[in-house]
Write a structure and sequence with these properties.
About 15% of the residues lie in helices and about 35% in strands. With about 170 residues, the chain is mainly beta. A seven-stranded antiparallel beta sheet has the order 8-5-10-3-2-1-11, covered by helices on one side.
Length: about 170
């Protein structure tokens, strides 16, 4: 008798595209193409000083598990230092949030988005790199910022000024 159930999705230690995004390195472990859009999981390496600026995405939930290191998670509801072992959930609805590695050590996060879609934004704005390769954060002049805002909006995300959350 043939099994017609879906097969497990397995990502090896070097599988999935690695991308430089705002100076961080993100590896897409599981994409929405593999889960019929249900979710995507991204392995994030965030160097000291790294992390995305304030943004919001009302149509999906985002979770972070801190595998190693720490990041400061800021939102309109306040700030929290998420250390190794912490789990953060950004609910659907569009609360403005960001995170930053304010330590002097690498932060390692696992991010899951439900439904999938954020990984497509990373594919559009990121530059392919090796898993452990880091490119400097790009200089964002007004033209680059405009391009980033346009691409983010295409993927259901709104970008806010760097000082938006104080």
């Amino acid at each position: 008798m043939k099994n017609t159930n879906p097969t497990p999705i397995i990502a090896g230690p070097h599988d999935g595209p690695s991308l430089s995004v705002v100076g961080d390195t993100y590896r897409i472990l599981v994409s929405g193409k593999q889960t019929s859009g249900a979710f995507a999981t991204i392995d994030m390496l965030v160097p000291p000083g790294g992390g995305p600026g304030p943004h919001a995405h009302p149509d999906f939930e985002e979770t972070f598990y801190v595998v190693d290191g720490e990041v400061e998670v800021k939102s309109e509801a306040g700030a929290y230092i998420a250390k190794k072992g912490a789990y953060v959930v950004i609910p659907k609805g569009g609360i403005v949030h960001c995170f930053k590695n304010k330590s002097d050590k690498m932060a390692h996060l696992l991010c899951t988005v439900i439904p999938a879609g954020l990984e497509d934004l990373f594919m559009d704005i990121g530059q392919p790199v090796k898993y452990d390769e880091f490119l400097p954060a790009p200089h964002l002049d007004p033209e680059s910022i405009g391009k980033l805002i346009s691409i983010a909006e295409k993927h259901g995300q709104k970008v806010f000024p760097p000082d938006y959350l104080g």
